[in-house]
Structures are given as structure tokens and as C-alpha cells.
């Protein structure tokens, strides 16, 4: 207790400058935006920003976003990149109206995956979803069932730092595989043949701003949208995926998007493509993860929260601290030194830190972060 209060009272422990990361942003979203992307945005501040999203200047950038993602994810030619306003959270409601025919199954293993399950459970036009849950820090497995027409998976559960490999469930060929890839897309490997709808917001691995959702959709998912439309179900326009598909084909959104968000997303996609694509972006995350978990495993006071090594996220690391080291106080001291947002996910309630390792974050900065944490912890011993 005494050690704890000593640390709380001295948030001004000064971390030596040679242990400070070049960039102190380690938050899981909004996350670090590369300064080069912002400079590039400034360059178009009078020609692109503040211009009509129905004209070619903006539509060309939306086209680059759609083509760039098709290339990045090696999408088969009949898949489509669809986008709209509202972020991944809005997309759960969209899926509830436009993708789930009658009944969905949700792998629920943290805050984000459980929220989509709740949205489906509340929808009066759907049957009760099948919710397969597991303890925080672990992940459940799909239970194939022929009453299910959509399997809701989460590539990376951002609240706990658990990732899962995306595989089409065997024996569920007629169902849609919908993946919340908000924190996983571009940071984790994926094969487009294994999903029908891979959706995300761009403020995580795509180092942009929030407010937009992007979905990579297979012909099967596109057909499902049409089928549901034909049943005559009432679908509010902003939740109607068929309207978003129509607009996306014209490189537009149904209503006005944030042009800066689109631009920054394109800048990140093109940065990935210029450097080797998904291999480059996922490689940076793996390198950071090796550094973070390697440090925790060798530490006397820190341990990776996720026990099963294959479930340990390569994009969001969660590290438990021994009870005598107060993780929140450590995070507060780091914050006073310009290293921000390593606090744990608020509702998880563990004595831990959470570190984003998205592609924009330099692995060498993750290394310096671990040195800075060691310094803070030892400074108060
Ligand atoms: C951040 C996040 C969301 C929520 O994204 P919004 O853009 O805030 O709607 C959903 N799912 C996962 C896995 C996330 O990491």
C-alpha cells in the first residue's frame, strides 16, 4: 500500500530521455496517426478538404480506398468494398437489419463481441441469437447449428487482447461469416475465402479517424442483402446495406462522410501497399508483439494476461502486473511523461496495462516503452 501511494503521489518520476519512445501514443483507438499522413492531408487542405463528396476529387479518393483495400486483402474479383458512416458499432445495427435473416450465432469473449450479440438479441424481427461465451482472456469456438444463418466472429477482441484465426465453420456453407475486424484488419493475416463480410472502423490499424465503417463483402453477403430486401422487412435507410452498396459502387457514401477520415485511411492503405502490403503491416505487429510478450515473460512483475499463446493478440497486448505494482499508477506516471493510453480496458477491471501494437507503431518504440515501464517500476521500489 505504501509503495502504491508513494507512486501516486509522485507522478512526476522523470523517465530519462533515452528510454522515451519517439512517439508516445499506444492507445487502442483512436490510435497513433503517422505524422506523414497528417502532412499529406495538410497538402490537400485547400483542394480536397471542403469540397463536394459527389465530385471527382473526393470520389477518386474513395475509389483509391476501395481499390487499395481490394489489393491489400487480395480480394477475389467478385468481392466488393462497401463503406458508410457510423463506425463498426453502427455496422452491428446494419447487420441486424440487413445481413441476419433469422438467427445469428455470436462468439462472445469481451466487450465488443458481446455488444453485437446484444444488438441482435434486442431486434424484434429476429429470433434469439445463440451466444457462445467464454471467460475474458480466452475465446469460445463456433458450434455449427443449421438454425444459424450468420456467424459473428471477432478477429481481435480489443478489450481483452485475444485474437482468433478466421475460418469458415465446416458444415455451415449456406451461412454468412461476418467478422468484426475493427482492431485486427491489416494487423492480422486473413484469407478472404474464409469470410463473407469483414468489417472495421479505420481508427485502429488504418491510423485514421473514427466515424466510418468499411466492409469487404463476398457475393454471398451481397446476395443476402438483396434477399432480405425482397422480404419487405422495414429497414431504416441509414441501416440499409443495399443503399450503402449502391452508393459505394459510385465511390460515394449515402450521406456526407468525414473527408479527412477517408483521406487518412487511403494514405495508410497506400503506405502498406508501397512497403509490401499485408505482409509488411502484419509483420510490424508481430515484431512488436514478440518484444512486448518477450519482455513480460522475462519480467519479475509482469505476465501476459492471455494464457494460451496462440490466442495472444499481435495487435493489442494485455499485460498483468503483480498486485504490489499498481498498473494504473504506472500508467499515470507514463502519461505524465508523454506516454499515453496504456490504461486497461475500463470494464475489464484488472491490474494490467493494454498496449496497442498497430502497424503505425514502431516496434522500436514498443521496446522503449518496456524499458520506460521497468524504469518507473524500479524508481519507486
Ligand atoms: C473499436 C472497436 C469497435 C468499435 O468501433 P467504433 O468505430 O467505435 O464503432 C468495435 N469492435 C472492435 C473489435 C473494436 O476494436
From TrEMBL:
* Pathway involvement of the protein, from the record: Amino-acid biosynthesis; L-serine biosynthesis; L-serine from 3-phospho-D-glycerate: step 2/3
Q: Which domain of life is it from?
A: Bacteria
Q: Which reaction does it catalyse?
A: 4-(phosphooxy)-L-threonine + 2-oxoglutarate = (R)-3-hydroxy-2-oxo-4-phosphooxybutanoate + L-glutamate; O-phospho-L-serine + 2-oxoglutarate = 3-phosphooxypyruvate + L-glutamate
The GO annotation for biological process reads: glycine biosynthetic process, by transamination of glyoxylate; L-serine biosynthetic process; pyridoxine biosynthetic process
The protein's required cofactor(s) are namely:
pyridoxal 5'-phosphate
What are the protein's GO molecular function terms?
A: alanine-glyoxylate transaminase activity; L-serine-pyruvate transaminase activity; O-phospho-L-serine:2-oxoglutarate aminotransferase activity
Region of interest (Disordered), residue spans: 1-32
Keywords recorded for this protein, A-Z: Amino-acid biosynthesis, Aminotransferase, Cytoplasm, Pyridoxal phosphate, Pyridoxine biosynthesis, Serine biosynthesis, Transferase
Q: What's the Enzyme Commission number for this chain?
A: 2.6.1.52
Write down the InterPro entries for this protein, in alphabetical order: Aminotrans_V_dom (IPR000192), Pser_aminoTfrase (IPR022278), Pser_aminoTfrase_mycobac (IPR006272), PyrdxlP-dep_Trfase (IPR015424), PyrdxlP-dep_Trfase_major (IPR015421), PyrdxlP-dep_Trfase_small (IPR015422)
NCBIfam families tied to this protein: serC_3
Q: Which PANTHER family match?
A: ALANINE--GLYOXYLATE AMINOTRANSFERASE, AMINOTRANSFERASE CLASS V
Give the protein's biological function: Catalyzes the reversible conversion of 3-phosphohydroxypyruvate to phosphoserine and of 3-hydroxy-2-oxo-4-phosphonooxybutanoate to phosphohydroxythreonine.
Q: What is the name of the protein in this document?
A: phosphoserine transaminase
Origin species:
Ferrithrix thermotolerans DSM 19514
Amino acid at each position: 500500500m505504501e509503495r502504491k501511494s508513494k507512486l501516486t503521489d509522485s507522478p512526476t518520476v522523470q523517465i530519462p530521455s533515452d528510454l522515451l519512445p519517439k512517439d508516445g501514443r499506444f492507445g487502442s483507438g483512436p490510435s497513433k496517426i503517422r505524422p506523414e499522413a497528417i502532412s499529406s492531408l495538410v497538402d490537400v487542405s485547400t483542394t480536397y478538404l471542403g469540397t463536394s463528396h459527389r465530385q471527382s476529387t473526393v470520389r477518386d479518393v474513395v475509389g483509391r480506398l476501395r481499390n487499395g483495400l481490394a489489393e491489400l486483402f487480395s480480394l477475389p474479383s467478385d468481392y466488393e468494398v462497401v463503406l458508410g458512416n457510423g463506425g463498426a458499432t453502427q455496422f452491428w445495427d446494419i447487420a441486424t437489419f440487413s445481413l441476419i435473416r433469422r438467427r445469428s450465432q455470436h462468439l462472445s469473449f469481451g466487450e465488443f463481441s458481446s455488444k453485437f450479440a446484444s444488438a441482435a438479441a434486442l431486434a424484434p424481427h429476429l429470433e434469439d441469437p445463440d451466444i457462445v461465451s467464454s471467460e475474458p482472456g480466452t475465446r469460445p469456438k463456433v458450434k455449427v447449428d443449421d438454425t444459424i444463418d450468420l456467424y459473428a466472429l471477432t478477429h481481435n477482441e480489443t478489450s481483452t487482447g485475444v485474437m482468433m484465426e478466421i475460418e469458415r465453420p465446416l458444415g455451415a456453407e449456406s451461412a454468412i461469416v461476418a467478422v468484426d475486424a475493427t482492431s485486427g484488419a491489416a494487423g492480422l493475416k486473413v484469407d478472404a475465402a474464409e469470410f463473407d463480410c469483414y468489417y472495421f472502423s479505420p481508427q485502429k490499424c488504418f491510423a485514421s479517424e473514427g466515424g466510418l465503417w468499411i466492409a469487404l463483402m463476398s457475393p454471398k453477403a451481397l446476395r443476402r442483402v438483396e434477399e432480405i430486401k425482397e422480404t419487405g422487412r422495414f429497414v431504416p435507410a441509414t441501416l440499409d446495406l443495399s443503399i450503402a452498396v449502391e452508393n459505394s459502387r459510385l465511390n460515394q457514401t449515402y450521406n456526407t462522410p468525414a473527408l479527412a477520415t477517408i483521406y487518412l485511411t487511403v494514405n495508410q492503405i497506400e503506405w502498406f501497399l508501397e512497403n509490401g502490403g499485408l505482409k509488411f503491416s502484419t509483420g510490424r505487429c508481430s515484431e512488436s508483439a514478440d518484444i512486448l510478450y518477450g519482455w513480460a515473460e522475462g519480467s519479475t512483475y509482469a505476465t501476459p494476461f492471455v494464457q494460451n499463446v496462440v490466442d495472444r493478440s499481435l495487435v493489442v497486448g494485455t499485460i498483468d502486473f503483480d498486485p504490489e505494482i499498481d498498473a494504473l499508477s504506472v500508467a499515470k506516471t507514463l502519461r505524465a511523461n508523454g506516454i499515453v493510453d496504456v490504461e486497461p480496458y475500463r470494464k475489464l477491471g484488472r491490474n494490467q496495462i493494454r498496449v496497442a501494437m498497430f502497424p503505425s507503431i514502431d516496434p522500436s518504440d514498443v521496446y522503449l516503452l518496456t524499458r520506460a515501464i521497468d524504469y518507473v517500476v524500479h524508481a519507486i521500489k
